[in-house]
Design a protein that fits this description.
- The protein has 324 residues and is mainly α.
- The chain has one domain (6-233).
- The protein contains 10 helices and no strands.
- It has helices at 9-30, 35-68, 74-85, 104-120, 126-147, 159-182, 190-200, 209-229, 235-267, 280-312.
- It is globular.
- It starts with 8 loop residues before the first helix and ends in a 12-residue tail after the last helix.
């Protein structure tokens, strides 16, 4: 695996989300935008792709259960699907919070911190913001003490610590937005910021993986988001960044169920296997995921969100990009 610490991308997303949400909504909420309307805008942004990916994962898992004759497992499957439809964790889950689409745990915590931000935005002084960041930091500390790692939040046995990752990084992102309003950093090329970010996912976990993770979450990622906000980019890089931003959420939402499907097809001799071609197979897999993500984004997510925005008159309220 080229990026053993790719799980840290979740923390980058939380910091970026806090920055973008504060940029897009702080003034509107201060000006009287109802919290209900704000949260509806966030649901419209996240829910369509989330439920599409969840249903895809649910359908694939169900066909596997039926093929194996595990009819008794369809009861827990149906309960997990009912909870997921409400954007809630599986109440009977023995392991994953969202077994039908495991990465959805971070979207769940994203919605929680989004709602907390909306409820507090009008009264969110720097002192309260600092208290929220310290509370998140305390939860990160407890996660390290209990789990020995910050790769937490996705299973029931470490779910509580996932709230710390979301709380800390999201409100640090809000803090970065406020700091940037007063202090701009020297512009650096956006490709350099991207290269440093990718490099941070490369180191393999060692004896004390939490130390490196903590340094990235507390120092590196807030600094990268702050730097990226003022980074320089040419026309080609801006165009590429917009395309990547458009695909980032579809890729994240869909990569787990698509990975299940592609791996199963490969085991049945359909497609390219790693045994047959250890280099070509990952490229084909990655290309297939990108292609399907782009197709779903263009044919489903974009038009569905456009209709919902028109129906609820949200066109002027949602930010241009809030990609996990």
């Amino acid at each position: 695996m080229p990026f053993p610490r790719a799980y840290l991308a979740v923390d980058v997303f939380f910091v970026l989300s806090g920055f973008v949400i504060a940029y897009a909504y702080q003034h509107r909420l201060d000006s009287g935008m109802p919290v209900r309307r704000y949260f509806l805008a966030r649901l419209v942004r996240l829910y369509p792709l989330y439920i599409f990916a969840t249903l895809l994962g649910a359908a694939w898992i169900a066909q596997g259960l039926l093929r194996q004759g595990s009819i008794e497992a369809l009861g827990p499957w149906a309960l997990a699907l009912a909870g997921a439809a409400l954007f809630l964790p599986d109440p009977l889950g023995a392991r994953a919070l969202f077994p039908l689409n495991e990465p959805a745990w971070s979207l769940f915590f994203e919605l929680l911190v989004n709602l907390l931000y909306g409820a507090l935005a009008v009264r969110l002084s720097n002192r309260i913001l600092g208290a929220l960041i310290l509370a998140g930091a305390a939860l990160l500390g407890f996660a390290i003490a209990q789990m020995g790692t910050l790769n937490v939040g996705f299973d029931w046995d470490n779910a509580a610590w996932g709230s710390g990752r979301a709380l800390f990084s999201f409100f640090v992102g809000v803090g970065v937005f406020r700091c940037r309003q007063r202090h701009r950093l020297t512009a650096v090329p956006i490709w350099l910021v991207s290269l440093v970010l990718l490099a941070s996912f490369v180191p393999s976990p060692g004896r004390q993986p939490w130390f490196y993770d903590l340094a990235c979450i507390v120092v590196l990622y807030p600094l990268l988001v702050w730097t990226a906000a003022d980074a320089s980019a040419g026309r080609a890089m801006i165009g590429l960044s917009r395309r990547l931003g458009y695909l980032s959420y579809p890729l994240y939402a869909l990569h787990w169920p698509l990975g299940l499907i592609l791996a199963s097809l490969a085991r049945h001799g359909i497609g390219v296997t790693t045994q047959a071609s250890p280099i070509l197979a990952p490229l084909v897999h990655f290309g297939a995921v990108i292609g399907v993500a782009w197709l779903v984004a263009r044919s489903f997510d974009t038009p569905v969100r456009a209709r919902l925005k028109r129906r609820y008159r949200l066109s002027a309220d949602a930010p241009a990009q809030t990609a996990p």
